Amino acid sequence: MRANRQIVLAARPRGLPRHEDFRLAEAPMPAPADGEVLMRHDWLGLAPAARLRMDEAGSYSAPMALGDVVYGQAIGTVLESRHPDFKVGDMAMAMRGGWQCFSALRGGDLVKIDPQLAPPPAWLGPLGTSGLAAYIGLLEHGRPKSGETVVVSAAAGAVGSVVGQVARIQGCRVVGIAGGEDKCRAAVDEFGFDACVDHRDPGLPQALARACPDGIDVSFENAGGASRDAVWRLMARGGRIVVCGLISEYNAPEATGPGWYRLLTQRLQIRGYITSDHLDLRPAFERDMARWWAEGRIRMREDVSQGLASAPAAFIGMLLGHNRGKVLVSLAPDHASAA
Length: 339
Ligand SMILES: NC(=O)c1ccc[n+]([C@@H]2O[C@H](COP(=O)([O-])OP(=O)(O)OC[C@H]3O[C@@H](n4cnc5c(N)ncnc54)[C@H](OP(=O)(O)O)[C@@H]3O)[C@@H](O)[C@H]2O)c1
Known about the structure:
Blueprint: E1 3-9, E2 22-28, E3 36-45, H1 49-53, E4 73-81, E5 91-94, E6 102-106, E7 110-112, H2 129-142, E8 149-153, H3 158-169, E9 173-178, H4 181-189, E10 195-198, H5 204-211, E11 216-221, H6 226-232, E12 235-243, H7 261-265, E13 269-272, H8 282-294, E14 302-306, H9 311-319, E15 326-330, H10 332-338
Parallel strand pairs: 8-9, 8-11, 9-10, 11-12, 12-13, 14-15
Antiparallel strand pairs: 1-2, 3-4, 3-6, 3-15, 4-5, 5-7
Helix pairs in contact: 2-3, 2-8, 5-6
């Protein structure tokens, strides 16, 4: 019987995770119980939120225990089914598949995907939870109107790139904030942003002011830190600040936010949200995003690394901003070597 290769949490990171915080392990191949399916993971989707689950205190979700398989999403193929809705060969997305080569999961914890509509990686990007986070945050909480200015940080990343494209579909002027020239160029050339400014540039506040001459109506915050502070000074009256993520603080949770005086003078609304609070919007998201994807109005950038063992380096690289698009791990090399 083949073994199941896994990456487990070996130690709780202090600040930025190190390679020693992860360990490659082997477990017996899982056996599906009644109501479950055995899935071969073909792709892992890495997400910054996994870092929050590595702290003992946890965050909005329960912390991982030491020795747990690292939390993460997976796309895979059903090898064996004991659930009436799934048959062998179906492809599905597992929110809690984890960094491993196989899993046995309840049918209710899987979402079937249609590889005819879009290739599997897209179901971890715009058509998956990155897209859902963008859709909910922007449309439900940002409520952008045509002609308004929307600013999004981590603009070339998995969530940010979808926010920008959906805001353009709504008729907004879209300005990105991203780390470095290459990402700013991608935001404009690949994703259709009107402008994008570099958060590493000490002249960020001035560059953002030039890019937003009428102020900012909707801020979609993914990063916090320098970008948040620059955005804050430019918020227009009645503006909405949507806090999707604060990645600059995930390795240093004591960071402080801006003073609140502008909140008063500009009559601002600030809203934090977690995607899983709004799963009622999933059908609308699936309908709209599938249509926009089929019409070619949503594009995706992928940052693929090869093999399960590459996941920790890819994850650490993402927290350092080294990724160019949605961070994916292809498990094809693992399955080929085990065959
Ligand atoms: N609320 C929710 O339910 C929900 C759901 C999904 C994701 N999120 C959040 O959305 C954000 C984006 O996630 P993603 O999956 O799309 O990742 P991503 O943007 O593809 O990758 C992370 C990016 O964050 C940026 N970054 C890293 N450290 C930074 C720092 N110190 N200062 C500024 N930017 C930094 C980097 O881009 P640059 O090089 O451009 O800075 C990096 O490429 C994260 O904060 C995540 O937690 C929230």
